[in-house]
Amino acid sequence: MRAKMRLLGFKADSVKPLNEDAAAELGAELLGELTIFVVACSCLVLEYSRQQANHRRKVKERRAAWSALRDEVDHLALVLEALQAQVQELAPPRGALEELQAQMREVRTQLGALTAPSQPPPAAPKLEE
Length: 129
Description:
Blueprint (H helix, E strand, L loop, with lengths): L1 H7 L11 H71 L3 H25 L11
């Protein structure tokens, strides 16, 4: 009873002694409230630790996914560099195409010059009077 009075903010010096039944009931009530308080606090602590574990697991999964994505990007960058090197090897030099086109024009003009004299000129139409 003195502890209850102190908790409520009263002076506990002048408390009459309780009979045995009232003291037992008050002790049982205090024990029941204490049990409920301990169970509620335990639930809160367990829920907090569960939430923290879930949060740590999610962070770990995100980091693993991020790391996998970074590794994939690095791998794709290497593949891209290799493909670019292959294209560089297979592609003709930049001036080679223009050079080939110029050579083709020269050959065509030479062929045009060679075939022109060998062909007979077209016949002029005859006019009858």
